[in-house]
Amino acid sequence: MDIEKIRTLIALMEESELVNLEISSDDEHISLTRHYDAPAPTMMAAPTTAGTASISTDAVPASVKAGDIETSPMVGVYYSAPTPNDPPFVKVGQKVQAGDTLGIIEAMKIMNPLEATQSGIVDEILVNNSEVVQFGQPVIRYKA
Question: What does the DSSP 8-state code read for residue 8?
Fold first, then answer.
């Protein structure tokens, strides 16, 4: 299963506001479902028989409020600073503007900046440095 194919399908769902998407071929089957009653779904590919993959969603903990969070746009390893010796991109209590870099997510040996989609004050950093994050997983919570 190609992770880029899954990312493309997820982007297609978001652009088209699709709720369900199911694609099958001779050797693979992908089924994606968006649940709007949960603040932000966590998407994970789990191997199944015959080399296919299934996509499952897990609800985000109730303590995370929708709209007050930044979520991971992909599966990868979260880094809070550009190098181990540098200070972190953001700290609790820091004011950020939309477009500011909040961290880096390494996916397939590519360093992808995690940028703020909204302005606000960082209330909590929900993941640790070098922690694996899932698609849609909350990373930063803003003050209300």
Answer: H
Query: pLDDT value at position 51?
Result: 46
**C-beta separation of 142 from 67 below 8 A:** no
CB neighbours of 110 closer than 8 A, spacing ≥ 6?
Answer: none
Length of the chain: 144
Cα separation, 41 vs 14, whole angstroms: 12
- Residue among 11, 62, 67, 4 at smallest CA distance from 34: 11
- CA dist 65 to 8, 11, 84, 129, 140, Å? 27, 23, 31, 22, 11
Single-letter amino acid code for the residue at 41: P
Which amino acid is residue 100, in one-letter code? Answer: D
CA 141 vs. chain centroid, Å, equals 14
The single residue listed with the structure tokens 């698609």 is: 135
**pLDDT tens digit string along 71-130?**
999 999 999 999 989 999 999 999 999 999 999 999 888 899 999 999 999 999 999 999
